[in-house]
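Lab notebook, bench 4. The sequencing result for the construct came back, and we need a structural model before the next group meeting so we can plan mutations. Quick request posted to the team channel:

Model the 3D structure of this chain.
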Amino acid sequence: MFSDFPVCNTIQTRHSVRTFDARPLDAETMAKLTAYAKNLRNPFNVPVTVHALEMLRLAPSATNAQPWRILRRDGAFHFYAKASEGKDEIDPPIIQRVDVGIGANHFCLTAWEQGIGGSLKVMDAPTDTGAPENYRYLFSWTEEET
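Done. Here's the predicted structure in token form:
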């Protein structure tokens, strides 16, 4: 469904490498990687809610926890992370913030690839959003006019 989009295809087919091969890449593979890198943008203008949220869902996270929740309010996507259940100094814990950052990266790259401009901003936490009580607001993504 999303395979026409290079970033989407990369996210969908990614995996965590646990061992590495020290052999250099062959010329054909290098040529393919170079061509891919030159063609990261595409002519499609698909709504961000379709592909970017799906690519966010596919983002890796520690122990596959995916501790994020995204709420759309007032034209912005608000990112939340699960609050700490213990006595961590930072709430949400740092690893969960890293996970949300990876997910937000998937979201942003997909939107930008589709020609949808936007940026992440810390805003006043939205009120009356229906966000779960045990989640804390981190930042929002807002679309920018292009």
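The radius of gyration is 17 Å.
Will bring this to the meeting.
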